[in-house]
């Protein structure tokens, strides 16, 4: 009976791994295999559970970092976090009410919106990136912002 339970657990953890591809439950399938082997050799249920837990922990702790490093695709980091606090130039009027606005950052044009719905920014103004949500820059006034009211 115990062998059937261990087989069912192996199948469950393998199917779960296939469904999630998180490189987590596959290690539990390895622990279940160790429990199955112990059951086949007549070890008691307490020993089987201890072996299952120990093998699962060892596999998870020691081999998961290696597997994540070498088996998962290498993701390209965009470093967009570095844009927060940078000054950008408005290329199209930023008006949240109208839903318009673009700004150039590092030579690339981004959709831009004001942090404050009451504020609008005209083309040519320098604004500061306060946050990024998706592909939209949320901007606010910058200390480097040129005066647009004609004062010299």
Automatic annotation (TrEMBL):
Limits of the NfeD-like C-terminal domain: 81-140
Record carries keyword Hydrolase: no
Entry keyword annotation includes Ribonucleoprotein: no
Keywords: Membrane, Transmembrane, Transmembrane helix
Membrane-spanning residues: 7-28, 34-62
Domain of life: Bacteria
Protein's recorded name: Nodulation efficiency protein D
